[in-house]
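Retro notes - structure team

What went well: the batch runner handled both jobs without manual restarts.
What didn't: labels got mixed up in the shared folder, which is why I'm recording both outputs here explicitly, each with its sequence directly above its tokens.

Job 1
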Amino acid sequence: MKAKLIVGLAAFAVTALTIAAIDAVSTLTLIKPAPEVRFTALSGETFSTSELRGKVVLVNFWGSYCAPCVKEMPKIVAAHEKFAPRGYETVAIAVRHDNPQRVVEFAASHALPFKVALDSSGALAKEFGNVRITPTSFLIDKRGRVLRRYVGEHDWAAFHELVERELRS
């Protein structure tokens, strides 16, 4: 019985440490150049990361099947609507496991006001550092540098403060 308790406590400690480690790296300061990639929006428009220079850009990897992604989408929409008039852009990239038709339906039914692209091959996720967890977002400054990588839900107040600061710079 005592051995089972020790094993149980050890498992709990490992789980707690793992969660703490994930939480600690969920928001990383990277400040490195964004990868040069080409997106194709659902509208058919094509554009690249270099063409977005001069804007503060949120690149969000998500899935229409991903509950945390769907939960955070209204916050992404709100940020886009708040900052877009001042030079902010959002690119939502549906990951390769997502059903393209479902993505189109989601974007239409939620009236997403920003560019939505598909990453059917997984190439975009690979270029952004092998994104494997959704939602994962990257905030890119006007010079095309990744300022932050966010994994999972993040502190939206701090995000808004950072975007405000970058739009002023």
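Job 2
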Amino acid sequence: MLARFRAAAVGAAVVAAVMGQMLPAQAATTVTARCDFYSPKAVTVAKGARVTWKSGCDSHTVTSYSSNWSKNTTLSQGQTTSRVFNAKGTFKFRCRFHSSVSGGVCSGMCGSVKVT
């Protein structure tokens, strides 16, 4: 029984390692502001990558709420804005029109960029 458990654990580790290799951090990506959510909500990019936000519906903002970057842009439908992330970390953003932040926690239209 213990041998099967160990074999399953090793197998899971191998699958996780292979999956990690199949999903590398991206060099660039686009986040679309839908009517009431970002798609995708969270992205992982490589250091030096460009992230572009595009409004696919109505007016939205891309507003930092994690205090470690600066972006506060209002986009009308079809407009884009972008930023190159040159530092590692997690950078949180939200739409000022469709979210709220209380105690550092965002509810509503919120997202994040993880830079590796």
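One thing worth noting from job 2: The chain has one helix and eight strands.
We'll revisit the folder naming next retro.
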